[in-house]
Amino acid sequence: SSPGTIYEAIGGAEAVRRLVEAFYPKVQAHPLLSPIFPEDITPVMEKQYMFLSQFFGGPPLYTEAYGHPMMRARHLPFPITPERAEAWLACMRQALEETVEDESLRMLMLERLSGPAYHFVNQP
Ligand code: HEM
């Protein structure tokens, strides 16, 4: 991956792995989010690891495995309300606080994810 990316700044593959591992237990514990996620979260974690790696400037693991991300389309089967987008971002904020030391990097990452999160809202 290229220097100067968020991926490199946070510490590469291991950092993305830690973030994803901190994030999904929060999703599974969240009353608004847990009902729409599968009980076996492992495949979702793996896909998110691959996606976030490339999203933050690392190797294009997700695209290599699954093709064009088309993330809004992939979320259409799941009812995503504005409240669920907020909840997803709140879990991510906590996971970032636990795994990324640099506060300005955390803010930048959350900001980068906020656009897509609200864009995936497909229910009032
Ligand atoms: C998959 C919920 C936002 C990335 C999923 C799944 C659900 C979900 C239910 C499918 C789990 C399954 O396979 O059964 C949500 C909710 C969000 C949200 C409620 C709130 C807005 C995001 C954001 C990103 C993201 C902001 C990244 C920018 C992914 C990825 C997958 C996924 C990479 C796996 C896609 C695949 O199956 O290949 N999400 N998501 N999600 N989500 Fe989200």
UniProtKB/TrEMBL annotation:
**Which cofactor is essential here?**
heme
Q: Which SUPFAM superfamilies match?
A: Globin-like
**Keyword Glycoprotein among record annotations:** no
The UniProt record lists the keyword Metal-binding: yes
Q: Membrane-spanning residues where?
A: none
- Domain of life of the organism in this record? Bacteria
Arranged from A to Z, the UniProt key words for this protein are: Heme, Iron, Metal-binding, Transport
Tell me the first and last residues of the signal peptide.
Answer: none
> Which InterPro entries is this protein grouped with?
GlbO/GLB3-like, Globin-like_sf, Globin/Proto, Globin_bac-like_CS, Hemoglobin_trunc
Residues in coiled coil: none
Q: Which family does it belong to?
A: Belongs to the truncated hemoglobin family. Group II subfamily.
This one is known as: Globin
